[in-house]
Amino acid sequence: MAESTNAAGSYVTSTPMTRRGSSQRTTALLGVVPAVFIGAFLLLPLAVIFRETLTLSRSSITTLTGPSVRSVVWFTTWQAAVSTALTLIIGLPIAWALARFRFRGRQLVRAAVTVPFVLPTVVVASAFTRIGSLEIGTSVWAILWAHVFFNVAVVVRSLSGYWARLDPAIEEQARVLGASQVNVFRRITLPRLQPVLLSAAAIVFLFTFSSFGVVLLLGGGRRATIETEVWRYATQRTEFEVAAVLALLQLLVVGVMLWVAGRAGHKQRHVDGVTVDHAVAPESWRHRTQLGACLALALVVIGVPLVSLVGRSLRSGNAWSAANYLRLFDDPGPSSPLADPIWQIVANSVWFAVLASVLAAGTGLLAAMVLHRVRGRLAVLLDGLVLLPLGASAVMLGLGLLLTFDTDPFDWRASWFLIPVAHALVGFPFVVRSVLPMLRNIEPGLREAAAILGASPRQVWRSVDEPIVRRAFGVGAGFAFAVSVGEFGATSFLARPQRLTMPTAIFRLLGRPGAVTYGQAMALSVVLMLVTATAILLIERGRGGAVGDF
Amino acid sequence: MTSKELLHVAGLCAGYGDNQVVSDIDLEVNAGEIVAILGPSGCGKSTLLRSLVGLHQPSSGTVHLGGQDITNMAVHQRRLGLMSQSGHLFPHLTVAQNVAFGLEMQAAHADSTADRVSRLLDLVSLNDFGPRTIDTLSGGQAQRVALARTLAPGPNLVLLDEPLSGLDRALRDELAHEMIGSLRHEGIAAIMVTHDPDEAFTVADRVAIMNDGRLVSIASPDVLRSNPGTSFVARFLGLDAVVEVDFDHGSAMLAGQPLPIGLGDDGRQPVLVPTKAVEVSFDATSGGCPGTVLRSRFLGDRYQVAVRLGSSPGTTQVETLFAAVDKPLQPGQRVTVTVDASLVLGLNG
Q: What is the pLDDT of residues A246-260, one digit of tens each?
């Protein structure tokens, strides 16, 4: 009666035939909340953006076809391509060292490389306004380096894990057949890595193409990407039509890139299924030198900006002091761009993050349960829908919410709760992607055994699924919290000056010239970094081994 | 067989860190000769091969190939072949591209490359497999492709690292035959590492036994079989029983029979009791020693029975002997064992 495993090996829910109708009803019931949530706050806003592009005025068309928009599209593509190439060039040797050598601190380095990726974009941008005494904040190199800093984790993490599983005996075989080391890399290693390289490159291109915070803060008003232009046209110039068209263009490119990444990712599973770590201890001097050089590279690219950020937060005037941190508790002065004392803003951020993670965790869990129960074409459709908030950029979410909820009876623009809603949308895919693989990995026999022993479907969930899923649920909720605390793109559309979040406050502080506001921005960036790092650390401790997709 | 020396290894030691895995290897291989290195797993066989091919840096000793010192030569310049258990075919290339790889690395002309690839695929009976991808091959086909790829650049010497141990018995025998045929056909010398005595004895001109990082004996299969020399070799070959007996002034008793004088020094010494020296019967009056059947094993045309000797006058310990019989015996069956003492051989340590 109960189905077990289909031919492809994927799990099929065991449901007695006679109870199919009631099971479908349960599935639909579980789906109501996530459906309303995604429908109202994601699909509806996207539809509104789309509607906006259908009725273009003559002046909007002139703007869109003008040289300014064209140069923005060019710069967006150019910087994304260069950033991607640089990230690959720097990430490749680091990934190689982590894949090929077993050394003390290997896990630590792998974790450290990941730190920038989970940092809020605003913190990264602050770190790159100045490196030591070097004023690079206005040069294009600041943007490129910040992008490398941010994305090197994507290359290193995906590549090093895959690379470590590739049997070096294949390369040795090529050596014996007469290939020099250069030829081995070109003819054997590179082609074998190609699927992962391609998928990592597509993801990095995606991230840098839709880069918002970094470009907004480091572009100095002169350099703009499509994302920052969407924000500028929507919030500064209130030309919503132009913003909407640019947002759709952006979505198109993102869609193509996701497709490339997905195809490459699909291919890599067929190349190698083994999970043996082939790393060796660096025995010879040659190996030690190579390892040292690669680790030094990682240290410079990632360590220097972070150390420099912390250093600057502790400088006041020309001396070391904690003054910047103490000012976080002052009432804002007349020259301050902030309406509240900064501790109040930190409290806002944490409160929003708690709300957002509760909302994301609740809807995400329900959505994962629904996805686990449906099959076939509907499952594919829903799978894609769940990832849509990641694909549609944060700026797009912000624009959509702004355009949708500005008219009666839903004129909520002045109210604060759209912020945690937007954050929850961004966190939602993380929860689903954490919980769903765990649900799918539960041995079907476990549930069947429980049912045969007399457990009702609810008791089966309580006794089999829940303990296993709880951990993944915590991880997903933790990620949603971390994402919310650092969220900048959507928030920059929605935050009122009276109710700022940490990232939007840092943006305002950096926008106002002056040593005091600059120092405060640095100190607040460090606080934001610490809050995020704490959340991520708690997640890592709670996860205890690999869980789900993250 | 020509007697021209191709490979000369002298005093080779190799290891990982402080752990020496291969010690003082001296080995010569003549042109066209096939040498098997036989030993239990973990005895250092693979490390020895890796040191010869240049994938592992030996800590001391020299390797000469055709008179040239190649001890420190880069791997890709040595022009040796290496074929291992899992084949290690390039998964992103087709069968033909795999076979052509070594030729392309020598910058061979494209036409002659295509020619040689198809000739080699013929040799390993995979004529039409050129365009196939690697993941469509069976285990036996993959090893055939690996062999063709190894032979393609025309090495003088190939190193075979348990090349067939991933395959099932019948296929292994067939492929061993084909592989050796191909090597002899191309006049290529080979060192084959294996833990399977049958395989070694079937294919090799000489067999070297390796234990704990050292070569403990090198001889032709016939010599090794008729006189293993040490109890380690005899036990490892597993063909006959190795029994410890007590010698007193050069004489000892086994199964109620006196052994020839001078097989061992005084004290407890191992001797080899060949299967053909042992007979079992149910006739308790034949004057043999009583024994109990432990197990029977089918060997194709006969059965090998292991018999535990019961204690009898003159036998101070209980030992197990092997005998060949026509039909299987039940474990626990009581039999009478007679040993032809003139066939018993003395062993060292």
A: 888 888 888 887 777
